[in-house]
Amino acid sequence: WPPERRFVGFVFQDQLLFPHLSALDNVAFGLRTHGHSRSVARARAYNRLEEAGLEHLEPKRPGELSGGQAQRVALARALATDPNVLLLDEPLSALDASARIELRRDLRAHLDDFTGVSILVAHDALDAFALADRIAVLEDGRIVQSGSAAEICAHPRSSYVADLVGLNLLRAKAEKSVLHFP
Predict the structure, then answer these.
(1) Is the whole model's pTM more than 0.85, yes or no?
(2) Which residue has the higher pLDDT, 2 or 63?
(3) Contact residues for 76 (Cβ-Cβ < 8 A; gap 6+)
C-alpha cells in the first residue's frame, strides 16, 4: 500500500502542524487524505478534539497554541484516523516541565486505550518508564537491554543502563561479607 493508504499515526517532537490550518482542520487532515468528505472529516475531528478536552481550540492556528496545546492537537491528529500503528518521536521533549507532566499523564491514558501497536522514541528515562510497557535501551545503535521498566531498574546490565535509570552500578567481587573492588 502507498504511504497515504497505510494506517499509521505519527507524532513528531515538534508537532509539524500545518500553520495555515486551524486545530480542527489539522486533526481533520488525515481523515481527508483517507477519502472522507470535508464535513465528515471535520465532524470526526471535532469529536477527537472534544474527547481530548480541546474543543475550545478548534478555531486556533498552531501559532496561537502553547507547546502543550499544540502537542495535544498533534496527538489528536495522529489518533483521528484510528491507526494500527502509532509512532511517537520524542513527543514530550519540546515542552516545559509543567506541560510535560500533564501531557505525559494524558498520553498514558491514550496509550492505555489504544488497541494498536505504539512505538515511543525517548531520551528521557522517566518518559519511557511512564509511557512504555516494554523498553529497549540502545547504546551506540545497538540494543543493550530490553524488558519492563521494573526489570531494567532492578537489573541494569551495564553502567550505561544504570546511569540512564539513575542508579550507581559498582563492579565488585564478594567474599563472605566483604566486597573487593577492582
Answers:
(1) no
(2) 63
(3) 27, 45, 48, 49, 51, 52, 54
